[in-house]
Amino acid sequence: MTAACESHALEFDPARHAYLLDGRPVPGVSTITGMLDAPGLDAWRARVGWAEAQRIATAAAEMGTAIHAAAAAIVRGIPLLPLQIGERFAPAVEMLGNWLADNLSEALFVEEPMGSARLRFAGRPDLLATLRHRKRPVIIDYKSGNGVYLGSVLQQSGYRILAREWAGITCDRLIIHMPPPPAGEAQRLSEIPLRRHTADESAFHALIVLWRRSEEETY
């Protein structure tokens, strides 16, 4: 199989988080999975209350920004200064750094744009790497929200398609879940392997169709 990166041009605009594949705009993976409702998330918001849910969501977003930036720097071998991390996120960054030191064998792609000319979409996986004690390369996605929902699972299936078509690499999938800890509790890191590749990719294909339909006139 010829990797698409050898015959197609992909541009990414970080300011608008927008992609051009062969000069034409294409949706990102997160835009496509944004078509999916998250009933589990809605139920959680109803249970804890809107104000508390908003507080937790804001903390998770800030945590996500910190660990994504720190993880990319760690994998690239860029030293992190304490002021860059901040005292609030230092335990999470240290825990993630230790996990990467214990498990990472080789980083193949770090937050690099990939595109599918066949399905006309693009995305930037957090990390595509080889890990110790695993036979196949793995797409790793860092999540800091309260839970891991179907949208995150299907997002990973989109990245798996991109890795196969853009780089010619067939991957496994792994989510590293690091939600902000409740007050007084220690930071946690959970590994969530995703194994239903065929079913999840079929579901992602369906979301692409749904997104395309949403872009058409409805009358």
Question: Can you put this structure into words, describing what you see?
Answer:
This protein is of the alpha+beta class. The protein has a single domain, classed as Alpha-Beta Complex (Lambda Exonuclease, Chain A), CATH 3.90.320. The chain is 43% helix and 21% strand. It is built from 7 helices and 10 strands. The protein has helices at 29-33, 39-48, 50-76, 82-85, 90-103, 150-166, 197-214; strands at 10-13, 18-21, 24-26, 104-110, 114-116, 121-123, 127-131, 138-143, 172-177, 190-194. It has a 5-stranded mixed β-sheet. β7 and β8 (138-143) form a beta hairpin. The protein is globular, with a radius of gyration of 18 Å. The mean pLDDT is 87.
CATH class: Alpha Beta
User: Residue share in helices?
Assistant: 40-55%
Shape: globular
Largest sheet: 5 strands, mixed
Tally of helical runs: 7
State the strand order across the main sheet: 4-7-8-9-10
Instruction: Extract low-pLDDT stretches.
Output: none
Radius of gyration: 18 Å
Number of domains: 1
The computed structural class is alpha+beta
Span between N and C termini? Answer: 41 Å
CATH topology: Lambda Exonuclease, Chain A
Beta fraction of the residues?
Answer: 15-25%
Average pLDDT level? 87
- What would CATH call the architecture? Alpha-Beta Complex
Number of strands: 10
Give, in order, the helices and strands: EEEHHHHHEEEEEHEEH
Q: What is shown here, in short?
A:
The chain is of the alpha+beta class.
List the helices and strands and how they pair.
Elements lengths: L9 E4 L4 E4 L2 E3 L2 H5 L5 H10 L1 H27 L5 H4 L4 H14 E7 L3 E3 L4 E3 L3 E5 L6 E6 L6 H17 L5 E6 L12 E5 L2 H18 L5
